[in-house]
Design goal:
3 domains, D-Maltodextrin-Binding Protein, domain 2, binds adenosine monophosphate, 9 helices
Length: 293
């Protein structure tokens, strides 16, 4: 039976859930708001269903073609062990849910490099990635698999070190642990199934990918407008973060120009102060709501 609606797997609850739903909404998909525990949510304005599942199930659902797309952490994708080039048609970084899988030890412990982990027991919910790291470092340590609350393992004497996801570092600090090794850097990605899709849905696939690319491209992107003396323009252009081809227009009756640019990187207050010091005035920074590349 051919599928009439595209299916996207999204985490039901957790760090990826809010960012994934918000990205879909910013891309113009009107998700029908069912109950909190609803497994299947419909997109009202397009033939798309959202399947709300556990993060660890998403990679295999998409690889098997149960879902056509999935929002997943790179850590879960790598931990699934599914060969990325064989099982997925595309993998697109989304720029949110950035974190690192790190090995951490109690603060009071002396640590002199990965060899200090030899003979130790390390608690983790990422056994595959941890074993790969230990193997690459030639360290013989035991791996204790846990499915949550990894950070309490040293206090409960389940293990003497942990290998867990770290975002701000607050959880490690609250548990008297310090990070000593980075095993894997991760962010949310959109994975696309390599299973064939019907001709009717191929257009929806293109639309989805195009819109998500546009939302990702505009995230953090700003439009800067400023005025500057003509001879200060080259210096000012160098200060514009991630601006490839600014527009420079003469201001009538003055030896000055207006510069307009799309900045792909963060525009901080420090950037504005540097621009002002270089001669810029009337500096405006505007958010970009939509952009079609
Ligand atoms: P933090 O205290 O901000 O370093 O966050 C650490 C806690 O949040 C740990 O329990 C992690 O398992 C979890 N965590 C942090 N970032 C992520 C992420 N991107 N995806 C899933 N869990 C995460």
């Amino acid at each position: 039976m051919t599928k009439e609606r595209l299916r996207i797997a999204v985490q039901s609850k957790g760090r990826l859930a809010t960012g994934s739903v918000s990205l879909l909404e910013r891309a113009g998909f009107e998700i029908r708001n069912g109950g909190r525990d609803e497994l299947l949510q419909r997109v009202k304005n397009l033939p798309i269903d959202i399947l709300r599942v556990r993060d660890d199930d998403i990679a295999s659902f998409v690889a098997e073609g149960v879902c056509d797309f999935g929002f997943v952490g790179q850590n879960s994708l790598a931990e699934s062990g599914l060969d990325e080039s064989d099982n997925f048609a595309s993998i697109t970084p989304l720029g949110f849910a950035r974190c690192s899988l790190k090995i951490a030890v109690p603060e009071a412990i002396d640590y002199a490099g990965a060899s200090s982990l030899s003979g130790k027991r390390i608690a983790t919910s990422h056994p595959r990635l941890l074993r790969r790291f230990l193997c690459a470092k030639n360290v013989d340590a035991a791996v204790a698999e846990m499915h949550g609350s990894v950070e309490v393992a040293p206090r409960l004497q389940i293990a003497s070190a942990v290998c867990d996801l770290v975002s701000t570092g607050a959880t490690l600090e609250a548990n008297g642990l310090r990070a000593v090794e980075t095993v894997f850097d991760s962010e949310a990605v959109l994975i696309q199934s390599a299973s064939p899709i019907s001709e009717e849905l191929a257009g929806i696939v293109d639309l989805l990918k195009r819109r998500i690319d546009s939302v990702v491209a505009t995230t953090g992107t700003k439009y800067i407008m400023l005025n500057a003396p003509r001879d200060a323009a080259p210096e000012i252009q160098k200060l514009l973060p991630g601006a490839e081809a600014p527009t420079i227009m003469p201001l009538s009756g003055r030896d000055a120009v207006a510069i307009h640019a799309v900045c792909q990187e963060s525009v901080f207050w420090k950037t504005l102060e540097d621009l002002k010091a270089a001669g810029a005035s009337a500096i405006l920074v505007l958010p970009i709501e939509k952009m079609m590349l």
